[in-house]
Amino acid sequence: MPVAEPEIVGRLQRREPSGFLLASIRGVGQVDLQPLLWTGIIILAALWSAGWQIGLFATLGTLISTATAYVLGVDRSNIALGLQGYCGCLTGIALVTYLGHHPATYVLAVVGAIICTLLTATLTTLLASYGLTALTAPFCLVSGVMVLGAPSFARIWHGAPKEVSSPTSGDTGISWSDLWHAFFTNVSQIFLVDEWYVGLIMLVGLAFAGVRVFLFAVAGSIVGIVAAWALGAPTAQIAQGIYGYNAVLVAIAVGAVFLTATVPNGIYALFGAAATTGLTASLTSLFKPFGGHTFTWPFILTTWALMAAVPLLTRLRRST
Q1: Span 117-128, pLDDT tens digits
Q2: Distance between CA 279 and CA 249 in Å, rounded?
Q3: DSSP labels for 89-154?
Q4: In this predicted model, what pLDDT tens digit does every residue of 182-218 receive, in sequence order?
Q5: Residue 162 carries which DSSP code?
Q6: Smallest Cα–Cα separation from 87: which of 30, 131, 18, 128?
Q7: How many CA atoms within 13 Å lie on the side-chain side of 203?
Q8: By the 8 A CB rule, do 222 and 240 touch?
Q9: What's phi and psi for 234, nearest 5 deg?
């Protein structure tokens, strides 16, 4: 994840509870690997524009995960960067999206956010020796387990509020309307939202994080569309952002965060963005028979594989 200026971290540490609130807002931006405050504010506003339930559960999950990190004594500089809140943010959204708005969902969102903080610490410890970070794996694990197990419990399961489209069949022709919708929903689907205007607002937030971040987000979205279309993915799923959101995350992570700004690194990042598009279909097909969800696993696995290879690829350079 990106590193903030030392004076920013220090300021956040000294001002409580304002430091807690600012760290939580940064946690929303860290879903896209960006700690800038304005990026977090704009993305959070985009989530509320998608619906009050999405905005509320995103806020709740982020606040609980961040608060848990404070209680458990996680390093304050780490908290200040928002690195303890982003998985809770996504978990809250996933639970209300797939389980619906019920009292039990609030309880699960709180519990899930707490577990996300614990799993973040676990995975950070396990992956540190490999030079890798947890990314959104805690969110995928917690949300995947909770959503998969929910139908077994009558007080939790109230029927599926969201029908997930199959990414294996359908028309493969593509129109201009499909293209521009896909371009924006590739960004919003990172947060499980398929509204194009939400993606547009989020892109504005990413622009505040810097030109490089914005350009890689744009390039990742385009590569995701092209790769999905070239492989013959159904148009409906391309337009909904199903095939492109992982490509956006990989492009930002590898191209704008973890590697330096060089041409080989950029090509490497966009190659990863294309590769994760194919992996999205594979993992969706793998999870579908038992009711699992792909979430951001393609982004996680692709980024881990790409970054684990960097030490032996002498033309590539990690960011310092």
Answers
A1: 999 999 999 999
A2: 14
A3: HHHHHHHHHHH-S-HHHHHHHHHHHHHHHHHHHHHHHHHGGGT---TTHHHHHHHHHHHHHGGG-T
A4: 999 999 999 999 999 999 999 999 999 999 999 999 9
A5: S
A6: 30
A7: 22
A8: no
A9: -60, 135
CA nearest 300: which of 137, 174, 180? 137
User: Whose CA is closest to 92, among 46, 56, 47, 51?
Assistant: 56
- Whole-prediction pTM: 0.92
| pLDDT tens string 55-110 | 999 999 999 999 999 999 999 999 999 999 999 999 999 999 999 999 999 999 99
As a whole number of angstroms, the distance between CA 200 and CA 222 comes to: 14
Contacts of 153-162 with CB under 8 Å at 24 or more apart are 155/104, 156/99, 156/102, 156/104, 156/105, 156/108, 157/99, 158/99, 158/100, 158/102, 159/100, 160/98, 160/100, 161/97, 161/98, 161/99, 161/100, 161/101, 162/97, 162/98
State residue 193 phi and psi, 5-degree precision: -120, 130
Answer whether 144's CB lies under 8 Å from 295's CB: yes
